[in-house]
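Q: Please design a sequence for this.
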């Protein structure tokens, strides 16, 4: 099969991206700049700035001297690579082999693909139109070699499709920079008066190699198809998904369980091989009448343990109504994380949160009750009681700080403090009696006050004076007064928690 390559050049990649996000900038000259050796140098320009004489590598102060309205934005070093990868994955719909080409281009191996889109001309035009519709300036070229496509995309004014007979003639008229040479080699060629590829193409290879090194000879051979060039294509992430088509429709729970077992074996074998486990998974059943049924599970810890996952799904299999039968099962792991490998212990120790049996028990309890949520809380570095804890993302997560034990804290903390009616001496005395939800609680013992200031860098408001009190029946509460005591103003008291 004859090789064909498409080179896509984005002359204004990052500035086009910003113009798409902020359309008003399309009418304004602007640049990206970064500090280099103590000076702010321009790293990217938009088309309007370039028409006014601004170019990359220019000092920002010099550019502003003759373009007073020039907008300057901080450069984002990794932005170009991220954009190219995103566009490259999008281009996979046109060819399965797409590779990054430096910081401003893509290479597509279109061999055997162009006829699917109506020919080379239609193929190239479609790519160009779609990219321009998305807001990007592009120049494209199609040739038999990567080097020729790269050169024509960047050093010709129109998109070209050239075969071998015309390709050589066009390449000979282009400057040496079209061969992807180092800047120093290009300067040396120009200094010797060799300003086109044709001016030195006929020289002996030994002479070129001796004067300019191996690079020039290599690039010439690659551009003219005398040496094959290889690319490293982008590889999209393969989803963690397994499919099982059925020869006969499945209508029984036993058949569903058998299909589920086979899917889990295949999926978990792959997960174990990669040292990963699933946190969320969904089983999709496609019935013969076109209806789609789904059941899903979640785990508190990344797991690829087949019996455990099967039990979680088995709890929900009764929800699947096969009716006339299921013809296709799809098992997909929606969330996958790195899983810790199990190791044998040298001696028996106490069970910890990392224990696999504990996490599997919690998963089964959650799956059986359906509407039950089991949470674990960790200490957080905040003074304000409502923010002093946070919910753990998984059961084995380690806290960033230790639980405070210098001051008593209630076993149960209300999410929002509830107002109460209090009778208390003044000032700074604990309550003598308080009313909560219609019940009167005489206070027999009290400890406090403990003043907790509001975190002013988060929100504004008054401080709180907390008291731990015990009523006549031995029940203990955590109460607080909001703000300072002031004569003639009613005091605002709240209940915030209950001690065990």
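A: Design:
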């Amino acid at each position: 099969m004859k090789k064909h390559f498409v080179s896509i050049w984005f002359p204004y990649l990052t500035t086009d991206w910003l113009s798409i996000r902020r359309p008003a900038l399309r009418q304004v000259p602007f640049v990206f700049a970064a500090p280099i050796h103590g000076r702010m140098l321009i790293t990217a320009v938009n088309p309007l700035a370039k028409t006014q004489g601004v170019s990359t590598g220019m000092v920002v102060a010099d550019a502003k001297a003759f373009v007073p309205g020039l907008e300057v934005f901080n450069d984002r070093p990794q932005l170009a690579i991220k954009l190219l990868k995103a566009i490259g994955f999008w281009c996979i719909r046109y060819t399965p082999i797409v590779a990054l080409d430096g910081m401003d281009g893509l290479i597509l191996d279109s061999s055997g693909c162009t006829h699917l889109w109506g020919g080379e001309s239609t193929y190239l035009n479609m790519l160009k139109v779609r990219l321009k519709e998305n807001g990007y300036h592009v120049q494209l070229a199609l040739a038999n070699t990567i080097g020729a496509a790269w050169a024509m995309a960047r050093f010709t004014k129109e998109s070209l499709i050239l075969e071998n007979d015309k390709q050589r003639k066009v390449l000979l008229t282009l400057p040496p920079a079209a061969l992807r040479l180092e800047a120093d080699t290009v300067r040396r060629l120009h200094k010797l008066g060799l300003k086109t590829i044709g001016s030195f193409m006929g020289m002996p290879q030994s002479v070129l190699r001796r004067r300019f090194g191996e690079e020039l000879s290599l690039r010439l051979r690659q551009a003219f198809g005398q040496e094959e060039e290889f690319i490293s294509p982008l590889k999209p992430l393969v989803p963690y998904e397994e499919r099982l088509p059925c020869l006969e429709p499945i209508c029984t729970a036993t058949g569903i369980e058998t299909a589920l077992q086979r899917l889990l074996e295949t999926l978990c074998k792959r997960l174990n091989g990669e040292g990963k486990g699933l946190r969320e998974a969904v089983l999709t059943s496609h019935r013969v009448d076109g209806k789609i049924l789904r059941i899903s599970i979640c785990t508190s810890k990344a797991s690829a343990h087949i019996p455990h996952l099967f039990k979680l799904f088995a709890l929900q299999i009764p929800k699947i109504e096969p009716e006339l039968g299921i013809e296709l099962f799809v098992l997909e792991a929606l969330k996958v994380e790195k899983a810790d490998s199990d190791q044998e212990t040298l001696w028996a120790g106490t069970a910890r949160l990392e224990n696999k049996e504990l996490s599997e028990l919690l998963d089964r309890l959650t799956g059986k009750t359906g509407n039950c949520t089991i949470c674990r809380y960790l200490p957080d570095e905040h003074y304000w009681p409502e923010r002093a804890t946070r919910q753990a993302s998984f059961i084995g997560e380690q806290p960033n700080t230790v639980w405070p034990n210098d001051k008593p804290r209630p076993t149960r903390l209300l999410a929002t403090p509830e107002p109460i009616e209090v009778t208390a001496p003044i000032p700074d005395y604990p309550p003598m009696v308080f009313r909560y939800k219609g019940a009167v609680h005489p206070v027999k013992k009290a400890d406090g006050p403990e003043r907790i200031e509001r975190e002013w860098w988060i929100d504004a408001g008054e401080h709180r004076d907390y008291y731990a009190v015990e009523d006549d029946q031995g029940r203990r509460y955590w109460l607080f007064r909001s703000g300072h005591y002031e004569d003639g103003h009613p005091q605002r008291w709240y209940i915030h928690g209950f001690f065990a």
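Q: Thanks. Anything notable?
A: The first strand starts at residue 5 and ends at 9. The domain at 241-338 is CATH 3.30.1490.100 (Dna Ligase; domain 1).
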